């Protein structure tokens, strides 16, 4: 019996940016890499018509989303207090209404809000992809353990660049040159 191989296309994916807020970023040792990779994902999503949504954890206390990310998500952010984005009013209904089975989760913290959201989305029947260079925790052990746990639960670890190449799918894609410029213009993946 054939096994379903989880793959992404621009037509079947939604990008969710979780809680990339300035006060939290200040505590992340990989903040620069995280922000660059989330911005890269958002730039590619905008070019390829992949819808993106963003959340903010208790913005009254933790402040706004990082400016470069906020500028790339002009629709605003869903404020929440639940660690899982699925606990925010309307979030899950919004995703279901888009009829896209794949969710790419980026943001922080990997072992809290990203993990809780991923588990809830998997339980709700979505396929979850984790670009490991676009998620972060204050401690590397927490992030690494979260990725291992989520992979065992059914999430697919990947990288930001791998996600974008899957979205494009072919060098003949009309947006390939624009995507290539984004890729060439990025810092070396994983560097800070």
Automatic annotation (TrEMBL):
SUPFAM superfamilies: Isochorismatase-like hydrolases (SSF52499). Pfam families: Isochorismatase. Residues 13-161 form the Isochorismatase-like domain. Coiled coil: none annotated. This is Isochorismatase.
């Amino acid at each position: 019996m054939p096994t379903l191989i989880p793959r992404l296309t621009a037509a079947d994916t939604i990008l969710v940016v979780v809680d990339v807020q300035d006060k939290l970023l200040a505590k992340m040792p990989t903040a620069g890499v995280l922000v660059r990779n989330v911005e890269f994902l958002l730039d590619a999503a905008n070019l390829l018509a992949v819808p993106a949504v963003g959340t903010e954890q208790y913005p009254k206390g933790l402040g706004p989303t990082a400016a470069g990310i906020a500028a790339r998500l002009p629709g605003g952010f869903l404020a929440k207090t639940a660690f899982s984005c699925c606990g925010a009013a309307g979030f899950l209904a919004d995703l279901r209404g888009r009829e896209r089975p794949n969710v790419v989760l980026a943001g922080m913290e990997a072992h809290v809000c990203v993990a809780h959201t991923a588990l809830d989305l998997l339980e709700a029947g979505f396929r979850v992809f984790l670009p490991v260079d676009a998620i972060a925790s204050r401690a590397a052990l927490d992030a690494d353990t979260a990725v291992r746990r989520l992979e065992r639960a059914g999430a697919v670890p990947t990288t930001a660049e791998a996600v974008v190449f899957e979205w494009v799918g072919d060098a003949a894609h009309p947006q390939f040159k624009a995507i290539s410029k984004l890729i060439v213009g990025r810092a070396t993946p994983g560097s800070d």
